[in-house]
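Hi again,

Forgot to attach this to my earlier email, sorry! This is the prediction with fructose -6-phosphate bound. I've pasted everything inline since the attachment limit keeps bouncing my files.
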Amino acid sequence: MCGIVGYVGKRNALPIVLEGLKRLEYRGYDSAGVVLWDGEEIKFEKTAGRVAALEKKISNKPWQGNLAIAHTRWATHGKPSDRNAHPHADCAQKIYVVHNGIVENYLEIREALTREGHVFKSDTDTEVLAHLIERPFLATSGPIALEDAVLDALRHVVGTFGLAVISKDDPQKIVAARRGSPLILGLGDGEYLAASDAAAIVEHTKNVIYLHDNEMALLTPQGLKIFNLSKKTLEKPVDTINWDISAAQKGGFAHFMKKEIFEGPAALENVLRGRLLEKDGVSKLGGLESVRDKLLNVKRILITACGTSYYAGLIGKYYFEEIAKVPASAEYASEFRYSNPVVDESAAVILISQSGETADTLEALREAKKHGALTLGIVNAVGSTIARESDAGIYNHAGPEIGVASTKAFISQLGALMLVALFLGRQRSKIPLNLGEKFVKELKGLPAKMEWILKKDEEIKKLAKKYLKHKNFLYLGRKYQFPVALEGALKLKEISYRHAEGYASGEMKHGPIALIDENFPTIVLATKDMVYEKIISNIEEIKARSGKILAVATEGDDRILKLVDDVIFIPQTLEMLAPILSIIPLQLFAYHTANLLGLDVDKPRNLAKSVTVE
Ligand code: F6R
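Structure tokens for the complex follow:
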């Protein structure tokens, strides 16, 4: 949940790590800190607040140095405050650590170290790492390499870490290590970087190495060495980042969220690119080739994910059942992992994750593997843990998603799920060629229809203004549109802090209807599909109770105009694909509501983009 970045090379490290931190702020933004080696001494500063607050604090300090590490925090242990901000140091103030993850046994370690005389200055779990690393230095007067001290320290740690360490006594190096929290290494020209995410690195180099669990890296001006936690040297492949810095910038938009909503059509095009064969009405998925035969034999599909990705999975469940006729279900990864799931070799478990690092989804993957299930990842972040540990899968290729609220990734996930469903449906001969062709054709035409909806941005802003005074909202949808109602409500609550409940519209009578009055508006997904008439009945019931209604409906539906207070029209499409269109007005509605309320759309309170802790 935190972001770390480190640099060693020929240039002044300070602006490089501070800029990197800004690109990682989506991972956490309640405090920030930096530590720099200026060739003679250590300089450091940390503060509660954002990277901008850190910059302000050091703005009058003429620090220069070729080596630095920095951190942006999302608090787990200890409140956001100056003293809990990273870096954390040992007693002698020689060793500095920045850390992402959780040291689960920190209390035990802290007590033992306190008995040995170590003095702690923060409430964090991370600080024990600095003191553990200090220990071997205290035990001998001879020289000790920093990496050996870190290795020794990590032997005591239960939990997760992506960390970077520097020391005044061994100053020309950064030691970085990972278990459970992502770390990527950048190889530049005479300079090396380490970071939680490629966004902090891509401006300087596109050549990267993904560090795996239980691996450590030593970054010096002379080069990069990688070894495992038993100190065995490892040769690792160098990968290339296939997007550039502009993808991690706002590109003229006021917020990343708005930019990413507008990138929805491109995200869909990218996930479909080269994967649709119109003449055969099928999808071609290189990432599934190695498990093609196994897939043919699975009797059941279980989709598991968190948050927005889970809602995409709920729609995927329908796709698999309707197109491929395979029994399918979707479950929160946080539930699945503790549910003693009844899955075995006859099941495929699909993990959906934008970041590829979500702790619950990762553990669900490991649980599924333990039971012998075939695991497939639908992942956006290339090289991420879920992508690596899945048996097979497909990448979204949506580019980095930086706004904390997931938008283009959702669209891309629906595209990916449709591709997998088509693959299975045709593989199992469950859909005829002409139907396959129809899906392929409609999918290809969707980006243009999405652009058409995006042109309604101003109209949706006006509606957001109209409904701004309301503090509670009900979102209703049925069948394919039910998960869209859940996702629309999630978007509104997470960035505007308005209370919003997503409900299956058929359930309205079983409770939520009691909430309806003139102050409790309902947003209804009322597209022309097989449950349209049912939705119209719900609308009548809401009207009869003086409820205000904003509907998302199919272009040309004049009937609805007379029934509801406001309508946002979207183009006609196949009903299975309608969620890819209907979510866009809801994303924009949430965006404008939060923006009109003057809230920080890209960095909503209490949230972080990548939930790498449980
Ligand atoms: C909501 C949101 C979260 C994520 C969830 C899963 O806008 O972004 O609900 O969808 O934390 O994250 P990933 O997809 O990275 O596993």
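Residues 256-449 form a domain with the Rossmann fold fold (CATH 3.40.50.10490). Residues 306-309, 353-355, 358, 361, 405-406, 490, 494, 610-611 surround fructose -6-phosphate (CB under 6 Å).

That should be everything now.

G.
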